[in-house]
Amino acid sequence: MSSVTVRNLPDATHRALKLRAAQHGRSTEAEIRYILESAVVPKMGIGAALAAIGRSVGGAELDLKGNPSPVEPASFA
Fold first, then answer.
1. Domain 11-54 = CATH 1.20.120.1200
2. Left if phi > 0, otherwise alpha if psi is -120 to 50, otherwise beta: which for 46?
3. DSSP classification of residue 77
4. What is the distance of C-alpha 22 from the center of its chain?
5. pTM over 0.85
6. Phi, psi of 15 (to 5 degrees)
7. What mean pLDDT comes out for the span 38-66?
8. d(Cα 19, Cα 28) in Å, to the nearest integer?
């Protein structure tokens, strides 16, 4: 695991981080990790992101017709 040192953090920010950590039942260090991970991890998966992009540009209608004939079960004999 990597380590990061944050210099010149204002006292008010540090106090706010400690308070937020206490409200969430975490240590200050765990709260900072949570905040950083939340800031950089995608909020949605690639499929959902692509669907959102498609919707934003008007989408596309696909004419997908299934095969109406029944599927024969596999035979393992």
1. no
2. alpha
3. -
4. 24
5. no
6. -65, -40
7. 85
8. 8
The answer to whether 55 and 47 have CB atoms below 8 angstroms apart is no
Q: Is 59 left (phi over 0), alpha (psi -120 to 50) or beta?
A: left
Tokens of 2: 């990597």
What's the number of CA atoms in the CB half-sphere (13 Å) around residue 36?
9
* Distant-in-sequence, close-in-space partners of 60: CB < 8 Å, separation ≥ 6: 54
Tens digit of pLDDT for each residue in 2-39? 999 999 999 999 999 999 999 999 999 999 999 999 99
Which pLDDT belongs to residue 44? 81
Torsional class of 67: left (φ above 0), alpha (ψ -120 to 50), beta (otherwise)? beta
